[in-house]
Protein: AAA family ATPase
Amino acid sequence: MPAAEPAAEHEITEADILAAERAHLAESRAALRTMREHTASLSADVAADWVSKQILESQLELRVAALADHPGTPLFFGRMDHDDAGSDLPVTMYVGRRHIHDGDEGRPLVLDWRAPVSRAFYQAGPADPMGWRRRRRFGFSGGELTAFEDEPLDGGAPGLPQPASRILTEEIERPRTGPMRDIVATIQPDQDVIVRADLPRTVCVQGAPGTGKTAVGLHRAAYLLFTHRERLARSGVLIVGPNRAFLAYISAVLPALGEVQVDQATIDDLLGEPTAREPAAVAAVKGDARMADVLRRALWRHLRKPEEGLVVTRGASRFRLAEHEVRETAASLRGTMRYGNGRTSFAKRLAHQILVRMEERGEAPDDRVQDQVARSTPVKQLLDQVWPKVTAEQVLFRLLSDPAELRAAARGVLTGEEQSAIGWAKPARSPRSAKWTAADRALLDELDDLIERTPSLGHLVVDEAQDLSEMQLRALGRRCATGSATVLGDLAQGTTAWSARSWKDVLRHLGQEGEVTELTLGFRVPGSVLDFAARLLPYVAPGLAVPRSLRPGAGALTVRRVPELAAGTVETLTATLEREGSIGVIVPDDAVPAYADALGEAGLAHGVLGPDPGGDERVLIVPASLAKGLEYDHVIVAEPAAIVAAEERGLARLYVVLTRAVSTLTVLHRAALPTELS
Ligand SMILES: Nc1ncnc2c1ncn2[C@@H]1O[C@H](COP(=O)(O)OP(=O)(O)OP(=O)(O)O)[C@@H](O)[C@H]1O
Structure:
């Protein structure tokens, strides 16, 4: 029931309104509890058989989990009102994380933020009130409703900027501790457009650091699951992120939005963990989309000329196909379908030709005979000789270990230099004992798909997509071939040797048509810090719009030359610990142990961020290569010049590192700062 505004006999105070809204919150909480208890009481025994019972039980469990009331999370965060008697819209609606209805009458107490009608909460403004008169935002502390803020939608002059929302500002300024939070209460209109894009549409978001790309991608997944629940429950939604530490950081967002069934994976989880490493220049050649042609040729080179024709004996009769007939049959199928299907079709065609021979001799064989012939020993033997079963590993092994094979498959596609770069100098003994790099994994995946089709999911959210190689993008494209994708990234944060230079290319390799949208309003990094980092932009990604920050952040940036880096870091960290919030000490990868020792000796408790998610220490030493996508209230960066020198795209790495801070960034340097920063 909408909270009744108290009767106007006395002047309505803010306290009166707060009390009424708190009553609505209490009523909603009670209703959610009833909904949960009702679901928990449902029995799966009605299912007709054991399998259906298991399925129903797990669905009920998921539903109960989705109806959980997390005490720290408000059930609603906004309210819309109008007083137009002729309107079809409800007079009042509360917008929250999920639908809550009154058990007895089924009255909606809270509407899901993803429902079509809730769109107005994010999009309505004086220029287009969408039928509403007022937007109210609520402020919470823990689970308690502590504040509200009203915004008239009908009286304002269209086009004039709205006064800044205090609640939005507070939300953005809230110290960051622990994993990433959802932003459902404060999604901005341009973000909302991306979140609510239709399922069949692939969207690609170029966004400067902290513009909310990751947040938007996760909310889009939640929106799509709500809007196309059945379809996506069947086909699946997958979030692909750069590393496990990042996935752990974002892992709480979807469950907080009631979505507990979305998988998350790194590209290595999907394609297989690498067991070897290789120079970036070699990986860059292997990651190039031209490799797809090389692999196709390499695979089909496994077809062999028949040594002889086919002879099938049935009873006293023998039926023959000449060697040239077998050869022509194989040739007519070669490359027209997947290798595995081709093998099956080859057997069927041969059997059919034998059947024709039988008919020519007056027999009347039926389909069963054709199947028998296709599975007969002579056909199998011929199949193994001409169209052998192969695995992706066998094909890649032969390609990389046999220079003649590589030359034949790569002729006209890769230069001689490229061929020698990827060929193995010292091949392993066999495909089984071969070690595979991350780039090899994408090649194996391509081959797997050339042999058997890779199943497609319903929707993929790909974060930090600028860092994926063309071959990795093709691998992901296969996994959304009959679905769609949300592609997120920042060309300026591309740190791999094969990082994308254009989103059009990324979409092309992914095999998706889609629009590219740009987000430039930053929610994380204070303005002074963003301006400082943006000095690198002309060098790392000329042509990209310079990002603006929503937060001025005066005094947020300190750049200090120190005589000794470890001592300077200890001193800065000690001072920073006086302030609230998380602290990231970002240093060159190879310097991590030295900083860990220095902090340890100074008695400063800290953790070290590794590739796998770790503890939740307030102070973390972060190797520069793992900082992508993460954020900390306070960031201390030690020695930018060394971060730049450590890798080929070091300036882009520095840009990533300098844009992790929410409140303060302290840059410590002993060597001169990179000239691009000055
Ligand atoms: N509309 C919003 N309201 C409140 N906070 C927001 C909003 N949009 C983004 N944020 C916050 O801004 C921060 C940065 O968001 P996010 O990590 O999604 O940005 P990003 O574009 O992916 O950044 P990066 O490129 O550095 O990975 C997060 O703390 C996020 O919660």
The chain has 28 helices and 22 strands. Residues 310-386 form one domain. The chain has a mean pLDDT of 90.
